[in-house]
Amino acid sequence: MPVKRLTLRRVLWSCALLATVLLGIVALALRLGAVPFSFGDLGQNLWWFVSGQSEKVSTDFRLIMVDIRLPRILLGIVVGAALSVAGAGFQALLRNPLADPYVLGVSSGAALGAILALLAAPAVPLITPAAAFLGAAATIAAVYFLGRRQGQLDSSTLLLAGIVTASFLTAMIMFLMTSLASRDLRGISFWLMGDLSASLPRGLLWILITGFFAAAGAILTTASDLNVLLAGEREAMHLGVNVTRVKLVVYISASVLTGLAVSVSGAIGYVGLLVPHVMRMLFGSDYRLLIPTSALGGAIAIVLADTLARTLIAPTQLPVGAMTAMAGAPVFIYLLRRRLA
Amino acid sequence: MSGTESITEARPGPSAQRHSSHVRLNVEQASYAYSARKQAAPLFTLEATTFQAGEREFVAILGPNASGKSTLLRLIAGAIAPLSGRIELDGFETYHLDARTRAQRIALVQQESPLIFPILAGDFVLQGRHPHGRSLWFEKDEDFAIAEKALAQVGAEHLRDRWMHEISGGEKQRVVLARALAQQPLVLLLDEPTLHLDIRAQIDLLCRLRHLADEHRYTVIEVTHDLGLAAEFADQIVLLHRGKCLRVGTPAAVYQRELLEQVFEVPLGIEAGPAGRPRVIVQGRREEM
Q1: Would you state the CATH architecture of domain B4-90+186-282?
Q2: CA of A64: how far to CAs of A35, A93, A106, A248, B251, in Å?
Q3: For domain A75-340, which architecture applies?
Q4: A92-123 tens-digit pLDDT
Q5: Which residue of B has its CA nearest to A92?
Q6: Are B138 and A241 within 8 A, CB to CB?
């Protein structure tokens, strides 16, 4: 049968392939840096560490690997996966292949939410991701309503509404950060460009991972509905999709994913656009396959981009968002041109 | 793929078709009103409409623009709730069925909506199996067999591996019909299915619908502008005009010259064709105003 049939087997094999690539990138990312380690050292020390002979592990290794590089890579994996799944979700929700949390201003909304929370009540636990989620949800709702014309979601109006909302929110962030510079906050470039250099308490990382699996899992349960929803809301309704419920699930979950990612890494751009698009080219546009492959692909993209960002002009570190924007903006233009053609 | 000729000959007249079996679809005094805002005066109303359709029956909803045809179709499809009256499919109100159950019983072929991501015709037809699966499911062999059979029923097996955006309008309409058949519904609803098709493709599509009704027991309901083809293929005509249901009956009963001239506001000629089906002659406006 030439129509390539989607089976669980095919999904698992595709994921296994991407997971292998991810492992390779992670190994590379662990090795590269201001203090290089050989793969032999790396393997030896990791083995000691894992097998409970941690007394043999060198102090250098422990400091650099376990306390710095490994958490940073883990953070990159979760953030990349979250942004990519959010991007794929928004693309289905808005029926627009150019939708992306960053381009539509959702990331800026999340960043603004996080900053406001940090200013207002920095002591409340988990208030930053919660506020970032609210910021993301409010922004996407605003863009959705601004992007409609005569009740229809118009593609170019939507993108313009998103871009203008993003620049408005960016200006708000600039204003807040500049006028309240004395406060103990991370820099403007963290919030506007995204950065993985923050060291997080280990507990927060676990919360991130749990949140990611809950929200991405919720989107995954709607995957076959999303395939039909892409054909149009009315069509989907007549093919048995509970359109309101599915849209609500995706809207909330994608906002949660964006909020989680932005609250720990700032607004990293274009991953949510770039990764689902590449995965569509590689594996097809079936959401049952697209969501898991986007999660893994997003992890690969961010870890790779971050490794480049911290080694290209070492010892100076670029924000990872600069790398993703350099790669993502041309792709966005390419997609836009192709649609207009 | 037989031409009109043989089909017209072989087919019994409309009265012979009004057979037997139970009423499948019951539209009883159903009405609807659109308004821009709540409390605002309605912009458009569909007044109480009543008709019944059984299995094997082909119904054409006729009327000029803005007569309420599409509203009636959406009411039957259960997409909107009637203001008053009821629309029942085998005794269940269509609006109150849950989306999945409804999609297993009613398939709607709508006017084209744009596809944003490219899709193969075969995968498109497979979407018709969606109401029969659960969330996060993978199609079974059975689903593929049903989709394949649906493609065969519309004579479009050769399109299976073609991209939807690369095939012609007539071919696309057949694939869309195949997706509706893959739903294995009782009722097939079609919103101007022959719009944008050339005359050969129009007749080909209507012959297939007629065949589906006769041989596969579907109840077929189409909205159309084409008086001539409706008379040729339908068992029952529902004539709408400015939101009023003026007449329901066989083509011969509904196609009265004065009535149609009043509704469509053009001079028409009607003659009796074979098998008691009327023929419509469009005369144009010779003495303008």
Answers
A1: 3-Layer(aba) Sandwich (3.40)
A2: 8, 42, 34, 43, 85
A3: Orthogonal Bundle (1.10)
A4: 988 888 888 988 899 999 999 988 888 888 77
A5: B116
A6: no
